[in-house]
Amino acid sequence: MSAKNILTRRRFVAFAGSAAALAVFPFQPNPCASAPVHQGDTMTKLMPYLLFDGTCSDAMQFYQSVFGGQLSIAKVKDSPAKDRMPAFQHEKTLNAHLQSGDLEISASDWLAANATPLRGNTVCLFLSGGAPKDLKALFEKLSQGAQVTDPLKEVFFGLYGALNDKFGVRWMFQTSERSQ
């Protein structure tokens, strides 16, 4: 494997941020999205976020066969992202979400065209939903001693940020709620 295709932690951080941004497009059907929000009080969820090398759809269907529940899968070709991505990636999974009771897993295929994922660098912790002020507080606390790769900020799909904490654990943060 050539040196330019080896995925270092630094490259993973750079590419995981872009994969996460693609993975949280608001068009993605989410079975939790219709849950009632009482008086603006919502809860941030913690779930694993898995990155696959072209096998996301198969993996998530397998996990559904094991855990049951509702599975939603969005392909690149069925999203607004297709116009910004090379044709060879159109069959890849942009975002998948499995919910079975309290169990939730989010995932996507690896979408960084110029890097290859390595075993061990394809899992991160994903804090999703909740009030922006709560997500900001968690981001600030986890930022102590961390490498902030994507500062928490308003983007077209809500609030997003990412960091590697002081122990090297990758965290992504996202809520579609807007700051007041």
Task: Write a compact overview of the structure shown.
The protein is α+β, with helices and mostly antiparallel strands and 180 residues long. It has helices at 9-23, 56-67, 132-143; strands at residues 45-52, 70-75, 93-100, 103-109, 123-128, 147-155, 158-164, 170-175.
Secondary structure elements and pairings:
Layout: H1 9-23, E1 45-52, H2 56-67, E2 70-75, E3 93-100, E4 103-109, E5 123-128, H3 132-143, E6 147-155, E7 158-164, E8 170-175
Parallel strand pairs: 1-4, 5-8
Antiparallel strand pairs: 1-5, 2-3, 3-4, 6-7, 7-8
Structure commentary:
This protein has 180 residues and is α+β, with helices and mostly antiparallel strands. The protein has a single domain, classed as 2,3-Dihydroxybiphenyl 1,2-Dioxygenase, domain 1 (Roll). Helix content is 22%, strand content 32%. It has helices at 9-23, 56-67, 132-143; strands spanning 45-52, 70-75, 93-100, 103-109, 123-128, 147-155, 158-164, 170-175. The protein is globular. Residues 1-40 have low confidence and may be disordered.
Examine the secondary-structure arrangement and name the CATH architecture.
Roll
What is the CATH homologous superfamily assignment? 2,3-Dihydroxybiphenyl 1,2-Dioxygenase, domain 1
Stretches where pLDDT is under 50 for at least 5 consecutive residues are 1-40
- Cα Rg: 16 Å
Approximate helicity band: 10-25%
Number of strand segments: 8
Treating each run of at least 4 consecutive H or I residues as one helix, how many helices?
3
Strand coverage percent: 25-35%
Task: List the helices and strands in order.
Answer: HEHEEEEHEEE
Query: How is the CATH topology named?
Result: 2,3-Dihydroxybiphenyl 1,2-Dioxygenase, domain 1
User: Would you state the CATH class?
Assistant: Alpha Beta
Which structural category do the helix and sheet elements fall into? alpha+beta
Taking the alpha carbons of the first and last residues, their distance comes to: 48 Å
**Kindly state the mean pLDDT as a whole number?**
78
Give the domain tally. 1
Mind summarizing the main beta sheet? 8 strands, mixed
Strand order, biggest sheet? Answer: 2-3-4-1-5-8-7-6
